[in-house]
Amino acid sequence: MTTQPVVYVTRRIPETGLAPVREVCQVRLWEGELPPPKTVILQEVADCDGLLCLLTDPIDDEVMAAGTRLRVISQMAVGVDNIDLRAATARGIPVGHTPGVLTEATADFTFALLMAAARRIPEGVDYVRAGKWRTWEPMGLLGVDVWKATLGIIGMGRIGAAVARRARGFAMPILYYDPTRRPDLEAELGVEYADLDDLLARSDFVSLHCPLTPETYHLIGETALRRMKPTAILINAARGPVVDPDALVRALSEGWIRAAALDVTEPEPLPPDHPLVSLPNCVVVPHIASATVSTRERMAAMAAENLLAGLRGERLPYCANPEVYTRSREG
Ligand code: DGY
After folding, report:
1. Which of 165, 267, 274, 295 could form a disulfide with 105 if both were Cys (CB 3.0 to 4.6 A apart)?
2. What is the pTM of this model?
3. Ligand 1 atom closest to residue 76's alpha carbon, by position in its atom list
4. Which parts of the chain are beta strand (E)?
5. Mean pLDDT, 10 residues at a time, over the chain (331 residues)?
6. CA 269 – ligand 1 centroid, Å
7. Annotated active-site positions, please?
């Protein structure tokens, strides 16, 4: 009789992910609504073969050192900035993630944020709820046009490109900045490459789609915000720490830019008494850009696929540290 691998799952995820893992593994599931404390993760990984985690779990070298049997880490998210990839590679642990399946949902939501801020939808909802809607007002809750406005996309990966496709429907001229120039997308979508300063100065909307790395940490701080147009709107559906929150509070309060719409913040969650929550020109939602039923089901299924491949000793179909395989061959 072969013993089943032991897997720790750090939160309840859709059954599309849990069911295939349960079929062949002994699953230990953290049932809490909030993420397990790090002390719990450290204890749980001690005798686990696989870890299925979320972006809210700090998976650092200490966790990997505690998981002496860990053969695979599979995260149900595309972003893996909470995982020390370098440490995982050094320890020969492949890390799975979920690219592609959340691209369209995230791009849809980016547009929802853009429209919400441009057309002041949350303010309109509050207005009605507060009983202030007494008549049609010729000068009330005026927003800005989206149609034909210039969109600047920072980070032209899958999600950035999907946002650009949507923007074409609004006849928006599109600028992009990315460390890698994309002639394919320039030809397909008519997007124009710009350096960061130029993009910030020319865009009516600046939308962030870059990963969080040491290079992008607080990329949008005081200097960048001051380069933007006073009428510009900032959208962040990437990672919170790409934007310096203190600088953004000042930019929104002092009119350096017009508005912001944030799916992600620093910190997360944002405390209810944080100034960004109460500023009328800031829309904040709780990191829900990928939150559709079918997208979360696909993300969970993909996380299971990666986990099970790793447990079988196969190459992960969606691996965030593919260099781990080169390292093992050389090592
Ligand atoms: C991700 O996958 O990285 C998103 O932030 C959550 O869906």
Report:
1. 295
2. 0.96
3. 2
4. 6-9, 26-29, 50-53, 72-75, 95-96, 151-154, 174-177, 192-193, 205-208, 233-236, 259-262, 282-284
5. 90 98 98 98 98 98 98 98 98 98 98 98 98 98 98 98 98 98 98 98 99 98 98 98 98 98 98 98 98 98 98 98 80 43
6. 15
7. 239, 268, 287
